[in-house]
Design brief:
This protein is mostly helical. The protein contains 27 helices and no strands.
């Protein structure tokens, strides 16, 4: 039966997406996860909608259409002509992903309770897997694939992502574990997942996740306050013991785990996510002020970021890592779609939140856990950003919550035949499969090129890099890798510049590509000393500095170009400007990398 098969496929989305990785890939946690997510989600939705016509409450349907529709408008006028629609290879959060999220919510709303329980089984399996990987990592088993940070990163390659996943899965596991209506084996599995996910949440050191879990716990306590108060009144000694135990546990966690250090670094300007996070929000707010109606389009913030940077931000933080998100979900949405997109999203959040609150108060324990998971995710989003590996799963769970709460009147199903909808989604799944497999192969060839560069085999690196580009010419990072390999292979800076220009054809204003172009132009000018080459380098740097006058790296390139041109005064002036834009603390940090 297509509907049942579709539910099973949807249940596999969370465990497969969260656990899959490609050790042979250049970005082992990127292309493989996007392949699994896009194919499974589209295929599962196609199979489900083949057997039924989807129907959603009118206010929620209007909000979803408004959100995706306005983001499409923002993409059409945004700063990145391609990635606004399909997403960058690093984030994959263009209009397409937002549409997938809306689709997941609609399909989740269309599932009955038994089908929803199947989805929860998939979430528990995901929790067991993610928690197990993080726990064995905490115990000292950390292969090179997972050795990416000083904190636990699990099957995501990122402590922040692991924390977000743990905050989402932990309440679900808790809800299933305490629900007598669930099978005993499932409850035991959920208990195991809860224990190991706690290790993941603490060890990841992700403060956004801690905030999410804490807020979720408070909301649950408030929703169950009468029951909790009744039990505490009937058994005061047991209640006191539990509270003291929780207090001791919290103190112990802060004292002997990464929690204490991460909390103390909140006031540290140098610590990622510390006081410097406020500086990031200040830059994002400035960009939003300049683009209040449509934002800068999905994936456009990395391009617009320079317009919000001031001297203080550049001095303290620099751009060794190019920011491409605001580290706050609402700010991120304002950036990609302006005020209308945020308002539409808030309506969706409000409608789903009303259903979640109803389930927290009167729903089955397992669905109260799902509601608590949505609260944890939303609270954590205030300090993070939408993560493609999690967001579609969250929206699928939001649909389940709305369905189980039963709030609102569902209109008649849409007039479009289910077979037609399923056919379109099926074609999308096939296209996603082809694109995803090609991306994985290209990423593996890029890893071959990167390894060849590391061991000094420039010829092999150039061949592999160009092969990767041939497979996925739409990926900027592959063109940049090819440029590096071609120059190393002594095919000339001109060959490297051609590869960079190919990258600019994909994303004309990508700041990383523009900086690479400026560096190659300066290198060519230094190698040839031909006046036309020197003038070209200085003109390009001047053009970029006009758009980004606070980039210290550009000012250092300007000094190098002036030196090649014999302009000693210009070189001294540019160097002084670069030094002024680099604080001593930042200089020490960058020197130690």
């Amino acid at each position: 039966m297509p509907g049942r098969a579709g539910v099973l496929v949807l249940a596999a989305v969370a465990p497969v997406t969260m656990l899959v990785a490609d050790p042979a890939g250049w970005y082992p946690f990127g292309p493989s996860k996007w392949l699994a997510l896009s194919v499974l989600l589209l295929a599962g939705c196609a199979l489900v909608l083949r057997s039924r016509a989807a129907a959603v409450e009118r206010p929620l349907a209007f909000a979803l259409v408004a959100l995706v529709g306005w983001l499409a408008v923002a993409a059409a006028v945004g700063l990145d002509p391609l990635y606004a629609w399909v997403g960058t290879p690093e984030r994959h959060f263009g209009v397409l992903t937002w549409a997938l999220c809306a689709l997941a919510l609609v399909v989740g709303r269309s599932l009955d309770e038994r089908e929803g329980d199947t989805i929860l089984v998939g979430l528990v399996l995901a929790g067991v897997g993610v928690g197990a990987v993080a726990t064995v990592e905490a115990l000292g088993w950390e292969p090179d694939l997972l050795d990416v940070a000083g904190r636990l990163s699990g099957p995501f390659g990122s402590p922040a992502y692991l924390g977000a996943a743990a905050a989402l899965l932990l309440p679900v596991a808790a809800g299933v574990a305490i629900d007598d209506a669930c099978a005993l084996r499932l409850r035991w599995a959920a208990g195991l997942a809860g224990a190991t996910l706690t290790v993941a949440c603490v060890g990841a050191g992700a403060r956004a996740a801690w905030v999410g879990v804490a807020v979720s716990a408070l909301v649950v306590a408030w929703g169950w306050r009468r029951e909790l108060w009744s039990r505490a009144r009937d058994r005061p000694k047991a209640a006191t013991t539990v509270l003291l135990g929780l207090a001791v546990a919290v103190v112990a966690v802060v004292a002997v785990t990464p929690v204490g250090g991460r909390l103390s670094s909140l006031t540290d300007d140098d610590a990622p996510g510390g006081q410097g996070r406020i500086d990031e929000w200040r830059v994002a707010t400035q960009v939003i002020r300049d683009h209040p109606l449509t934002g800068v389009g999905p994936e456009g913030y990395r391009i617009a970021f320079a317009s919000g940077v001031d001297r203080d931000y550049e001095r303290d933080h620099g751009r060794a890592q190019q920011p491409d998100r605001a580290h706050s979900g609402p700010l991120d949405l304002l950036l990609v779609g302006g005020v209308p997109a945020l308002l539409a999203w808030l309506v969706v959040v409000g409608l789903v939140g009303r259903a979640a609150w109803a389930l927290l108060r009167t729903g089955a324990r397992r669905y109260a856990g799902v509601a608590a998971a949505l609260v944890a995710h939303l609270a954590g989003q205030l300090l993070l950003f939408p993560v493609v590996e999690l967001e579609p799963v969250v929206w699928l769970l939001a649909g389940l919550v709305v369905a189980r709460a039963g709030i609102g009147r569902v209109p008649r199903p849409q007039r479009v035949p289910p077979q037609m909808v399923a056919g379109v989604l099926g074609i999308g799944a096939v296209l996603a499969l082809g694109a995803g497999v090609t991306d994985v192969i290209a990423d593996r060839r890029a890893e071959t090129a990167s390894d060849a560069l590391a061991r000094g085999d420039a010829r092999a690196a150039a061949v592999s890099a160009e092969s990767a580009v041939a497979l996925r010419p739409d990926e900027v990072r592959l063109h940049l890798l090819a440029a590096q390999a071609l120059v190393a292979d002594q095919q000339g800076i001109v060959a490297g510049l051609r590869a960079v220009e190919d990258a600019l054809d994909v994303s004309p204003d990508d700041p990383i590509v523009l900086l690479a172009k400026a560096r190659l132009l300066v290198a060519r000018a230094g190698a040839t000393a031909v006046p036309v080459h020197v003038d070209a380098a200085r003109a390009e740097i001047a053009r970029q500095l006009e758009a980004d006058p606070f980039d210290s790296a550009l000012w250092r390139l300007a000094a190098d170009a002036a030196t090649v041109a014999g302009d000693d005064d210009g070189a001294r002036s540019a160097t002084a400007r670069a030094d002024d834009l680099t604080s001593p603390e930042r200089a020490r940090r960058e020197a130690g990398r």
